[in-house]
C-alpha cells in the first residue's frame, strides 16, 4: 500500500525494549521502546552521547540490538529483511562523509535508483528533481568530496529524497545548513509529509526547529527515553530540558520574560513565530480596544 494511503493511526515503527552496548562495552541504548504512527513526525532530542544516532542505526539495521526488537512496516529489522527495510527507510546521516562515496554528485544521487534499475529517463529526471529541491543542480558534475559541509548535507539529502522513501530518518538534518536552505528544507519536509504521508523521525539540538517540524518530541538521556509527548508538553518540562542541555525555542524565552513582566497572560508559551504572532496580536488588540 502506498504511504499516502496508510491509515495514520497504524504504527509504522515499533521499537520494543531494545538495549545495545558497543563492542567496547558502552551501554548506548538501555531498554528503549518507541512507537511511531504512519505519517507522524517525531523529534528526538537529548545531549551529546544520549544515544540518538545509535537508535537511528537500529531503524535500518546498520546496528542490531543486543536484546529487544525493531519492526518497520510490519517487518522485523533482521538480516533477511534488510533490503526491503532499507528501501522503506531513507536515512540522512549526521556526518555526510559517512554517506557520500560516489565520484560525482550525479552518480551519488542516482546510485540507489540505478541499483533498482529505474529506466534512464526517469532516473535522470528524478536526479535533477532532487538536486533542484536542495538547490544543488549547478554542482551536478562536481565530486562530492570537495563540497563544503552544508553542500555535502544537501547532496546526502538529495540522494535519500530521490528514492522517495516511506520513512525519513534524519540525523541533525539542518545542522550544517545555512538559514535559507534550512528553511527550504522545513518547507519541503512539511510538504512531503502532508502530500505523501511520509513518516519522519529526526534528531536535533535546535529547539526552534521542533515546533515547525514535529508532532511529538522524545527526550533521551544515557540511552533511555525520559519523556515522550507533544512539543507543548515537552517544552513545559523545564527542569528536564535544563538537565539535558536543551533550551526553549527563542520566541518562547521572549514570551516567558513578558509573562514574568505581567505583559502577557500566563499560559502555555508560544513555541513558533506564528504562535507568538497570534498571541501578541490578541493581547495588543485587546489592549488597544481597552
Ligand atoms: N562506534 C562506537 N563505539 C563505541 N562507542 C560508541 C560508538 N558510537 C557511539 N558510541 C558511544 O555511544 C554513546 C551514544 O552515541 P550516539 O552517537 O548515539 O549519541 P548521540 O545522542 O547521537 O550524540 P550527538 O548529539 O553527539 O550526536 C556515546 O557515549 C558514544 O560515545
Ligand atoms: Mg548523533
Compact description:
Helix content is 39%, strand content 21%.
Account of the protein in words:
The protein is of the alpha/beta class and 290 residues long. It has two domains: 3-101 and 163-247, Rossmann fold; 249-290, no CATH class. The protein has eleven helices and ten strands. The strands form two sheets. The chain has a six-stranded mixed beta sheet, sandwiched between helices. Helix 3 crosses helix 4 (120-133), helix 3 runs parallel beside helix 5 (149-161) and helix 4 crosses helix 5 (149-161). The longest helix has 18 residues, at 179-196. It is globular. It starts with 10 loop residues before the first strand and ends with a helix. The structure holds adenosine-5'-triphosphate and magnesium ion. The site of adenosine-5'-triphosphate (ATP) has 13 residues, from helix 1.
What's the number of domains? 2
Strand order of the largest sheet: 6-7-8-3-9-10
Helix residue percentage: 25-40%
Low-confidence stretches: 1-8
